[in-house]
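Components:
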Amino acid sequence: MSPLKILGKFLISVGIGVLLFLIWTLWGTGIYTERQQNRLETEFAALEPVAETGGPRPNFDPAPGAPVFKLEIPRIDVDHIVVEGVGVEQLKAGPGHYPACEDRFALPLCLRDDGDVFWPGEEGRVIVSAHRTTYGAPFWDLDKLKAGDRITTTTKWGTFEYVVTRTSVVDDDEPVPSTGNAAELLLTTCNPKFSADQRLLVFAELEVGI
Amino acid sequence: MIEPNRDPKQPGRWKRRGLELALWAAVAIITALLLVYASDRWLPANF
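Structure:
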């Protein structure tokens, strides 16, 4: 076999490899996330309710990847279990709740750097990040949310409804102004689709705790 | 009719083709796995 023929067959094989990667990225990762969500749903349902406090237990510090609350956004068909942490592995399983504002999670998204973490229903900024594409793409349609749309978070200490107040697109290193101690939910994902140049932000304010 | 892989004029021809096909399939699969590994490491987490 001539070297040119070998090179040709090699390039065709590499091309098929790239195609397999695209199939995995666009569809296979979604199947993976769906399975993870099924597992998380079961784990979340098994968690003990925290009825007496109306908030998370003192020193509530779930491990990365653990289910922490349920996020429902009827307008864009989001119904996912949120996991703790926004690392690569955590976001494969579903939307991730930003942990304490450490160095790598500093501005633009965190308000404080004293290690405080905010949970649904509390005063402060609760931040949830998720994939815009791949791994089930929970926030694929996040740009379709408009002021007035409702977001429901179901925790083990209550159900809290937020109402979208505004949306914004910022560069990935652009600070997001603080809103003080308002009970706020901030959803964030990459923008535009298939790019990470910017962040799409959706701000919502706590309306009612059930 | 003589089956191709039993053609006495070309012994082992189909076996060689099979091995070659397996080699190129391995190249394709390794390429895909390398891309999955690279994308995990270098693509932004919430891409």
